[in-house]
Structures are given as structure tokens and as C-alpha cells.
Design a protein that fits this description.
Keywords: Metal-binding, Zinc. By secondary structure, this protein is mostly helical. Helix content is about 50%, strand content about 5%. The radius of gyration is 20 Å and the shape is globular. About 5% of the residues have low confidence.
Length: about 260
């Protein structure tokens, strides 16, 4: 556990806008096609994230931004995690966080705005067969194409592309917490909004198998804390990935801090 304890691991700063079960937001309705649901979640969480990125990228009067090459010379999430970008030759290169996130936003928006990858034609919208009201024969008849989103006209690479987008979104959230939680989010009283969007994102990404346990490591302590304090209910995927005992210990540290 990092010392001194980051402010975002203090129980007073790990709260949310509202109390409730975020699982209801991340659970796919039974009649919604899985591909449609994943695509919807990608767009929603991308938009949520960029509301926060705008805050650290806005130019001050002197032309600088909160996140800049001097404050964040590399895309990092604490001392033990940093991320590289693949250049045109597919070689990993270290970039300042500002540049990394700018390139990533351009890449993500290019994917989301590509009608070949994210079709917008309403005629292609599919639906999931409700298992309780559909005969086995009809389900078998509909089972010819089995990749994510096939019924709604999504290409075969939808799943892998969405997984990459979720992974990149996580990296940005991790950077925001480790490098920018106090300034600007805590000072602007935006920490509850950040926590709410991030916990919703973690629930969604893990429920949809878009993030694996090893990828969560930079934010594992916060996941542990939220499992311990009830943000992630016992039946949720993040709870299964959490060290609840460690989360309770972090709770005690934050309470006594």
C-alpha cells in the first residue's frame, strides 16, 4: 500500500454522487443484442471520461494546461506503471501524458465515428432472443454467426476493438487518479463525479470481460476499498477480483488519517 496514502484512498474522498447499485447500469437488458450493448457502453464511457480529460487539458491564461510535458513527462499511473504508444512502425515509444491522451482520443473517436465498425443505420439494429420466450429451434436457427454483434451488422473485429478502447480508457482514469486527483478534481469538488464514473466503468468493463484482473493493477487498491465499503456488491465481478481484507485495512487507514 503506497505511503503516504493517496488522497483518493481516503474513505472521505472515495465517495460517490449517489448511493446505489451500479450493477443495474452495467447489466445488459435481456432483449438487447450483446454487440449493441457493448458498442453503447464504449460510447457512453468514452464521453464520460473525456469530460474529465477536458479539465486537465484546458489552456490557462499563460497557455499552459494542468497536464503538460513538464508535470507529466510520461503516461504513468504511479511509480510502478507507465504506458507506451505504438508509433507508425509499431514500435513502443514513451510520450508525455498530454500527447499520449491526445493521440488516443484521436484514435478512439476515429473508431467510434467509423460506420464500418460502429454502424449507425437503424435497419441494422438487432435484438437478443429472450431465452424464456424463444423456442430452442428458433435459437438454433439464429445461431449461424456467432461473433459479438453479428446479428446487428457489426464486423468481426468489434470485440477486439472495444477491448482495446476499454483498456485505453482505464489507462487514462489511472493517470487521472495518480497524477491529477488533488489538482484539479479534489480542489474543484469533482472527486465524487470522478469516482462515480470510474466505478461504473470498472463494473461495466469487468462484467463484459473487456478488462482482465492483471490490467486493473494500477487501481487495485481503490477496487479493494470499494469492495470493502459496499460500492461493489459481493455478486459483482470487481468484488471477485478484489482483496476485501486489504480493502478493510485501507478503510481503517483512511478513517484514522
Amino acid at each position: 500500500i503506497p505511503r503516504p496514502l493517496p488522497l483518493w484512498l481516503n474513505t472521505a474522498c472515495a465517495k460517490h454522487i449517489v448511493k446505489g447499485n451500479f450493477m443495474t447500469l452495467s447489466a445488459r437488458p435481456k432483449t438487447v443484442d450483446p454487440g449493441e450493448w457493448v458498442a453503447h457502453q464504449v460510447v457512453e464511457h468514452y464521453r464520460n471520461l473525456w469530460n474529465f480529460v477536458r479539465v486537465i487539458h484546458e489552456k490557462e491564461e499563460d497557455g499552459s494546461s494542468i497536464c503538460n510535458p513538464n508535470t507529466c513527462p510520461k503516461m504513468s499511473a504511479g511509480k510502478n506503471h507507465s504506458y507506451t504508444w505504438l508509433n507508425r512502425n509499431h514500435e513502443p515509444v514513451e510520450l508525455p501524458a498530454y500527447e499520449y491522451m491526445t493521440l488516443m482520443q484521436r484514435w478512439m473517436s476515429g473508431k467510434i465515428d467509423d460506420p464500418a465498425l460502429f454502424p449507425t443505420d437503424p435497419d441494422t439494429v438487432g435484438f437478443a432472443l429472450h431465452p424464456e420466450y424463444t423456442s430452442n429451434a428458433l435459437q438454433q436457427q439464429q445461431g449461424g454467426e456467432d461473433w459479438l454483434g453479428a446479428r446487428s451488422g457489426f464486423p468481426k473485429q468489434l470485440g477486439s476493438t472495444c477491448q482495446l478502447i476499454f483498456r485505453q480508457i482505464f489507462r487514462v482514469y489511472a493517470h487521472l487518479y495518480w497524477d491529477h486527483f488533488v489538482e484539479p478534481f479534489y480542489h474543484l469538488n469533482l472527486e465524487k463525479q470522478l469516482n462515480s464514473c470510474f466505478s461504473h466503468f470498472i463494473l461495466t468493463a469487468t462484467t463484459l470481460d473487456m478488462l482482465q484482473p492483471a490490467e486493473l493493477e494500477p487501481m487495485q487498491y481503490l477496487i479493494d476499498l470499494w469492495a470493502a465499503d459496499g460500492t461493489f456488491p459481493p455478486e459483482s465481478r470487481p468484488y471477485a477480483y478484489a482483496n476485501v481484507e486489504r480493502g478493510r485495512y485501507i478503510q481503517s487507514l483512511g478513517t484514522s488519517a
